[in-house]
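Suppose you are handed a protein chain with no further information: no name, no annotation, nothing but its sequence. What can you learn? This example shows the usual starting point.
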Amino acid sequence: MSNYTDDLHSLSHTKWNCKYHVVFAPKYRRKAFYDARRLEIGKILKDLCAWKGVNIIEAEVCVDHVHMLLEIPPKMSVSGFMGYLKGKSSQMIYEKWANVRFKYRNRNFWCRGYYVDTVGKNTRKIQEYIANQLKENQSFEQLELEFEDPFTGNKR
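A reasonable first move is to predict its three-dimensional structure. Written in structure tokens, the prediction is:
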């Protein structure tokens, strides 16, 4: 078990431990992240975080949303960083997959908003939650596929 002081970082006159759980989704909550594309989106987000000096503790690219546990330095606002991350990644996604642009109007790949929560002392629990997101989504989709509509008899 890690000690609280192990998590501290420092700037010239500041000791800090700022962790955030962030969730964001593509516009219209489209199921856009499958197989190789899922890995490539993850690499794009990882590179953008590294360029800004933001540490990714845990991350998962699910089929229709992204979970990230991030350490963002206090000199950077969460909203400023998220604007950068979503804006730059949109540009990079459109450069990589030009045909995606037609599905998303006005060059906005991501939904306008995002969810953010401070982690505090719950780092390990949130890290486990994010790590298990893909498994939970896959099992939920399997349940969803087996559902039969009682009124029409159609399977969904």
